[in-house]
Amino acid sequence: MNDSYLQVIDVTKNFGDFTALQNVSLDVKKGEFVCFLGPSGCGKTTLLRAIAGLDIQSSGAIIQGDTDISDLPPSERDFGIVFQSYALFPNLSVANNVGFGLIGSGKSKSEIKTKVKGLLEQVGLPDQAKKYPSQLSGGQQQRVALARALATEPNLLLLDEPLSALDAKVRVHLRRQLKELQQTLGLTTIMVTHDQDEALNLADRIVVLSQGRIEQVGTPIEVYSQPANAFVADFVGEMNFIEAKRVDSGHIGIGDIHLAADMQAVDGAEQLIAAIRPEDIQVQNADTAPNGFSATVTDLEFCGSYLRATMRDARLGGAEFRADLSMNLARRLQVKEGGALAIAMPPEHLRVYPAK
User: Fold this and answer.
1) pLDDT at 251
2) Which of its termini does the chain have fewer beta carbons within 10 Å around, N or C?
3) For residues 244 and 273, is the Cβ–Cβ distance under 8 A?
């Protein structure tokens, strides 16, 4: 039994000779919060616009609920949308902006007024109804745009980088409000973002795109901890990449040092890339741990609650890598530039990809 609410099936979108999406398929469950994540030009906004009917796909199908919406115009699709630019009407009050989509719905003026009041309370703006967009902060304008998108009670909410124009503190605050509102309403939501922190914080699942293709779909923990390939590993979070070679079915070689690693993902490739996150490099009891060796600290970067140590060792063939150490641990181990430090690259955190 298929429990998908939204199905994207082999969708391709061409703009002349340029292919923006190539055979993209995706299932979204009802009530799920999904983030499309990727760099500029990866196809994430094109995919959102195809779902909305703003840019009809060149081939493939889109099913929402039990309805094939592939060729329907936006006005006949069931969604609300919030853009990065807010797209509020400057000559209308907040209340009239929110209620704009209800005009012609058959509701009376009093019903619309009651609906608008409730929506403004939901987004935390109960006292702003009579103001105009120019009198509001960016964060307030974005909440008005969200209330307007919810006014028609859509079953699908589409968000196109809705927080990217806001400063960092406001963005974090609205991120929390947005997630709470989505969970309260149980509303199926798809958000486009290039901000990995935003995706990791908000999403039930993340869809990582690159060059019009889906690279990985998974929970935030899966995408962060088990990146499907080097692109995802590099795009999501900080990652050390070190050139390596195959030694045998369970070991890689970096310079003269051999390390145990899971080799299942690299088939028969001989030239490899080893990847490990800075926080996964072990420094406590590292001298007796698997994949342990000694390295020299060449640089220390103060990052507030932790130190980022850059290290290298002649036996690694000149390879350089970074480790993140808590301030307490760095003090206890008396970590300093030029000093030696026992470290380990735990096999369960060491990922291996074929070299390009």
Assistant:
1) 94
2) N
3) yes
Block residue for tokens 């902060």: 137
Pick from 232, 209, 222: which is nearest to 36 by CA?
Answer: 209
Q: Token digits for 135?
A: 């009198």
Chain segment 152-179, per-residue pLDDT in tens: 999 999 999 988 878 888 888 888 889 9
Q: How far apart are CA 58 and CA 36, in angstroms?
A: 20
How far is the CA of 327 from the CAs of 36, 287, 331, 332, in angstroms? 35, 20, 6, 9
Q: Taking residues 96-117, report their average pLDDT.
A: 90
CA dihedral (202, 206, 210, 212) positive or negative: negative
What's the CA gap between 308 and 114, in Å, rounded?
Answer: 54
Q: What is the pLDDT of residue 174?
A: 85
Radius of gyration of the chain, Cα coordinates, nearest whole angstrom: 25
Please state, in angstroms and rounded to a whole number, the distance separating the CA atoms of residues 327 and 333: 10
Cα–Cα distance, 163 to 167 (Å, whole number)? 9
Answer whether 274's CB lies under 8 Å from 242's CB. Answer: yes
Contact 65, 71 (CB under 8 A): no
Q: Tell me whether residue 309 is exposed, middle or buried, using C-beta atoms within 10 angstroms of its C-beta: 0 to 12, 13 to 18, 19 or more.
A: buried
Decide: helix, strand or coil at residue 68: strand
Give yes or no for residue 311 having a pLDDT over 70: yes
Question: How many helices (H) and strands (E) are present in the chain, helices listed first?
Answer: 9, 19
Tokens representing 351 are 């990922």
